[in-house]
Amino acid sequence: MRVTSRVERVERAGDRVHVRTDGVEIRLVVLSDGVLRIRAGFDGDFAEESYTLTTTAWPDRLDEFMADERTRVTPLPLDVEDLGELVRVTGGGLRVDIDKDPFRIRVHDDEGALLHSDVVGLGYREDSNGRRIHSSEISRDDAFYGFGETTGPLNKAQKLITMSPKDALGYDARETDPLYKHIPFCLKMNRTSRKAVGYFYHNTYDCDLDLGRERSNYWPPHSRYRADGGDIDLFLIAGPAIRDVVRRYTALTGRPPLLPKYALGYLASSMYYSELDADSDRAITDFIDIARAEDIPVDGFQLSSGYTTQQTEAGPKRCVFTWNERRFPSPEGFFASMAERGITVSPNVKPGVLDVHPRLDEFAEADVFVTRSADAVATAGAGPAAGAWWGGPGRFVDFTKPDARAAWQRWLTEAVLDKGTTSVWNDNCEYDGIIDTDSGVDFDGAGATVARLRNVMSNLMCRVTRDGIAATNPSARPYIVCRSGHAGIQRYAQSWAGDNSTSWESLRHNIATILGMGLSGFPHHGCDIGGFHGPAPEPELLVRWVQHGIFQPRFSIHSVNSDNTVTEPWMYPDHTHHVRDAIKLRYRLFPYLYSLAARASATGWPIMEALVSAFQDDPGVDDSAEEFMLGDALLVATVLTPGARTRSVRLPAGEVFYDAWTRQRHQGGQVVEVPVDLGSIPLFLRGGGIVPVAENQLRSLTHDEVTDLRLICVPDRDGRFTLYEDDGLTRAHEDGAFRETEIRMTAGEQVRLELTRRGEHRSTVRRLLFDVVRPGQCPHRVDLDGRRLPQFLHRARFDEAEAGWYYDIALGSALVKTPDHGGDLVATISFEPVDMIGM
Hints:
With 839 residues, the protein is an alpha+beta fold. The chain is built from 16 helices and 57 strands.
């Protein structure tokens, strides 16, 4: 066992500091403002070969492969001072104290607050099993968030988190560990100082993190990161805000592309359709036609893998890159008919190849598989590694091999993309069926074990998919869905929390899972609505799950019900109107959601955000996981328990909120009780918030355009929002074909709304309606660009007018309408008191 206990010498090497200890050499570099890299080189070579990092300050063996995904920066300058018992390193807004004997590293921010301290004697170790361990001091005041995709509470203090992705069918949303992702990143927030710091362990091996669950009287309270191999390669990321940490973390690992607009629509799916004996294509187009007849918007269909079922010597089996001709006699015709309906189909593609696959010889000849370990070669000879796969034993594609990536892209293009789609659903990418984790992978020529790199296979598979779509249809925005992923998967795919179970517990506890992903730099996440595995959801559960699900970044109703039912929006006719109303609300919110997606692409920030991140100064929301913010302006508190007649909501302190439906005003810091029925979707507008919504009905984000836009403005304080628009389908926005409308709201007796436009894209919006929330106070006048607008006292006259204003006393809003000619404009709504009698 290796233990690091004292410093032997500290050397400055240009913009780096090398700390030579009695256990392991440690190197420090300040990558950028607030980002410190601490690397303990257990393997001794300090090799730089990362599929993960998009920002580096050093040469990397994979720079050519990463190409334009990677940015090289210059490390920040350091001051190094030997103070006798310690060496002090400062730079990038951080102060690093290296205690010599006993050894530890402590990091402070520029205000002197302690962000991190190693545990003396436990800091950097290698145990007898070769696992590398890093231990950090914590306090009882520390809360922990992030960790990618996990179950249980949002705050993981005193929890043990395992990151060893599994195909976790029907998991328990409170207890199952691990799930599908490997994202060794977390946020620590001290509840007293309210400051956050991020820990990103740049390592692809399976690992676990103990957040104070284990206790020993011989050591101070501490957390522990333990990986099966590799270096302790820690990027310590200063805040102080949680959003600061997330922004800096995603600068390291990448930010999401702007997805096509239909990715924010209703994405239909069910295993049922692709498992029919025949004519699955017709059944799916019928489903879309029924949705249209039921007036339920829909934009996508996630095609399950049953389309690949072939009759083999072992019976019917799913065989990647094949089509079942009874179910889909003409894939090209199917994709064309769906496109005519405005539906993007995302076919399921898997990286495993069954031993009974009809094309096995072709794949084997291309030499694309993970190979046997040295021990297996000694007994069975060279060849592909075998593993458990869906349907029997199989082999697994090695996406770390350049030739395998090229072959996969070719097969994907021929079998899927050329049939007529620009979207792919990559599934079952966890590689947990390979029992012999010493099996070999290429690692772009360097060679390694699958234990080291299985967790990045899904990222690489998604990259190949992206490149294949770009080569086939260069102008289209790729849309990729992937179930698993390592840090950085946000660069390629939308995702969801896999095969959840049908229960009220899953509805409630999946929320924390999505919020944790958002705090881990992955904003485009969701969970199967209605539950994937189990009996059909009861009517009330289905309604409540849809009412919640419409706020998830990925909204998909998907099932494989154990009672042979199919979860569909209209499965309970007496309740369909509630489901329809909820889905229509999501489509009304599209301008807001799409703008938040653009913000996420620029900053890495969540779309669906935990209250602790949005209101970090309020200790009352540290553990809140059943309410969340959608952007900065909407607090969502949907009903999550059966038979509810009220919904209790603790509103964040220091804020003002309005019930979105009644416009009742509430001061933050208190619990409000909202009466609910089965149709209720409790929402709160935040003071200072601006929410753009579509006024015209959208049945398809692919075909329909927003022509009438309502801007809900809550002028209890100043606010701003950036409305983002582009064509939503092509990559023209990358060349400047987009429009941003900066909306600035100045509060007071005169509310000023200033719209400033920039960008080349021509907006589809033709009419604007300002909805200015001010219950009980009618404006005195309204000016638009200095011109007085007429007031209407009769609602029908107002509705007929091209421009003017009306005070809706029941709604508590001043409504101002005007044609939108595409230029800048300023609206001034005067709520100044007027004494008519005195006048």
